[in-house]
From TrEMBL:
It catalyses: N(6)-[(R)-dihydrolipoyl]-L-lysyl-[protein] + NAD(+) = N(6)-[(R)-lipoyl]-L-lysyl-[protein] + NADH + H(+). It comes from Fertoeibacter niger. This is Dihydrolipoyl dehydrogenase. NAD(+) binds at residues 176-183, 199, 268. Binds 1 FAD per subunit. Disulfide bonds join 42-47. Transmembrane segments: none annotated. FAD binds at residues 51, 139-141, 308, 314-317. The active site is at 440 (proton acceptor). It is an enzyme of class 1 (oxidoreductase). Belongs to the class-I pyridine nucleotide-disulfide oxidoreductase family. PANTHER family: DIHYDROLIPOYL DEHYDROGENASE, MITOCHONDRIAL, DISULFIDE OXIDOREDUCTASE. Keywords: Disulfide bond, FAD, Flavoprotein, NAD, Nucleotide-binding, Oxidoreductase, Redox-active center. Pfam families: Pyr_redox_2, Pyr_redox_dim.
Length: 461
């Protein structure tokens, strides 16, 4: 029986980052991973393959939409789907192999197989039982199911199946207008698929600042998306390789059907903790299936949990931050995650990014705030690249000017948001951002202008 300071179960962004930091801090670490490759959902079937396909199809979209405008003439490229899939897989392989390299570099043992926890302080993999002072559950999440819908990963797919479709479908119904549904929908819309999104709520991207969500929907509609909002899917049937989606409009209970070659079920994800033996151990769980934790500690001594398996946004960087913080706690340091400053990004074109509070949340909390907004239409760089749709919106405390949130829809939003994240970590005011010199011509100038708009006004608006 091998003994470790820490055994991490799951090699996703939460687990592998936790393991690397534990090793850097001098702890003896092993990671159990049942998948053939490291990196979890994110590297294998999540963030990374989806961004590869978004990248390839973004270029295709650019060719069709903007090349001629810039005097770039010639036949548009055709799509070799098998090659695009191979490119995506190469990107995945490069990243998963990279984690393997980091494990070797940091002397982390990879215990290959599926783990169970037969008793406190013990982890079983196959026939072997290993012991550890600390065990970390980093088992992530899996797609949530929908009553009346049976996923076959061919015609009715989750995001995992949508990443590896045998061919580009002529039509696709996406159930759920969340981030994953819209990103994958974008991939296929750019490849020529007629994409219809059916969403239960009356707006897309639930939880996003409403003004941004509205602008986002408008832009996606211009790109060819169809939206059916306020619609509850009743079921999906498949006959002759075609799917029929039945939905009811919530406003009048009227029932309609939609036909499509592929149906993507993107109604969220749920924590993946089954099969670990948590019930027998007496581990406290939350009603929605997450492991109950207090500063990552469960109710069992020496057993911790992080990432998608616990409460909070199901995001890779949230899992990573928790992994790092927990490693520091296990090494006797003060690990910390600031849940108030976790950015969220949608990697469509344009990108959408947010951090901190939305206007709706501030209103509900009764907080006095001011809004500084700046449209990308006033940003020279955005105009030069035909990406002037969208805006930056900064929310600041009315009395103190402290930044409370930022919401960006526009070019490079996923990168721009981080200057606001850093500002928020430092407790900055909107004026602090506004007084910081920003290089011209950059998209970041739009962030500065929005900060200026919180005070005496933007210059270029
Ligand atoms: P996971 O990454 O899910 O890893 C858990 C690992 O544990 C898995 O590899 C699993 O095989 C292993 N495991 C489970 N049980 C056991 C066991 N008993 N024994 C051994 N191993 C086990 N997030 C972002 O921040 N940005 C994005 O752009 C983004 N895009 C996404 C796109 C898609 C299509 C999807 C599906 C998700 C996306 N996410 C994105 C979410 C992100 O992937 C997750 O939030 C993140 O992977 C969670 O990390 P984790 O370490 O908690 O778990």
């Amino acid at each position: 029986m091998a003994t470790y300071d820490v055994i991490v179960i799951g090699a996703g962004p939460g687990g592998y980052v936790c393991a690397i930091r534990c090793a850097q801090l001098g702890l003896k670490v092993a990671v159990v991973e049942g998948r053939e490759t490291l990196g979890g959902t994110c590297l294998n079937v999540g963030c990374i393959p989806s961004k590869a396909l978004l990248n390839a199809t973004h270029h295709l979209h650019e060719v069709h939409e903007n090349f001629e405008k810039m005097g770039l003439m010639g036949a548009a490229p055709t799509v070799d789907w098998a090659k695009m899939q191979a490119y995506k897989q190469d990107v995945v392989n490069g990243n998963t192999k990279g984690i393997e390299f980091l494990f070797k570099k940091n002397k982390i043992t990879w215990l290959k197989g599926w783990a169970t926890i037969p008793a406190a302080g013990q982890v079983q993999v196959g026939d072997e039982v290993h012991s550890a002072k600390n065990i970390v559950i980093a088992t992530g999440s899996e797609p949530a199911s929908l009553p009346g819908v049976t996923v076959d990963e061919t015609t009715i797919v989750t995001s995992t199946g949508a990443l590896t479709l045998g061919k580009i479908p002529a039509s696709m119904v996406v159930i759920g207008a969340g981030v994953i549904g819209l990103e994958m929908g974008s991939v296929y819309a750019r490849l020529g698929t007629q994409v219809t999104v059916v969403e239960y709520l009356d707006a897309i991207t639930p939880g996003m600042d409403a003004e941004v969500a509205k602008a986002f929907q408008k832009i996606l509609t211009k790109q060819g998306f169809k939206f059916i909002l306020g619609a509850a899917v009743q079921g999906v049937s498949v006959a002759d390789g075609k799917a029929t989606v039945t939905y009811k409009l919530r406003k009048d209970d009227s029932e309609s059907v939609l036909e499509a070659e592929t149906v993507l079920v993107a109604t969220g994800r749920k924590p993946h903790t089954a099969g670990l033996g948590l019930e027998a151990l007496g581990v406290e769980m939350l009603p929605r299936g997450q492991v109950k934790t207090d500063h990552f500690a469960t109710n069992i001594k020496g057993l911790y949990a992080i990432g998608d398996a616990i409460v909070g946004p199901m995001l890779a960087h949230k899992a990573e931050d928790e992994g790092m913080a927990l490693a520091e706690i296990l090494a006797g340091k003060a690990g910390h995650v600031n849940y108030g400053v976790i950015p969220g990004v949608v990697y469509t074109t344009p990108e959408v990014a947010s951090v901190g509070q939305t206007e709706e949340q501030l209103k509900e909390a009764g907080r006095a705030y001011k809004v500084g907004k700046f449209p990308f239409m006033g940003n020279a760089r955005a105009k030069a690249v035909f990406q002037a749709d969208g805006f930056v919106k900064i929310l600041a405390d009315k009395a103190t000017d402290r930044i409370l949130g930022a919401h960006i829809i526009g070019p490079g939003a996923g990168d721009l948001i981080h200057e606001v994240c850093v500002a928020m970590e430092f407790g900055a005011s909107a004026q602090d951002l506004a007084l910081t010199c920003h290089a011209h011509p950059t998209y970041s100038e739009a962030v500065r202008e929005a900060a200026l708009a919180c005070g005496d006004g933007a210059i270029h608006a």
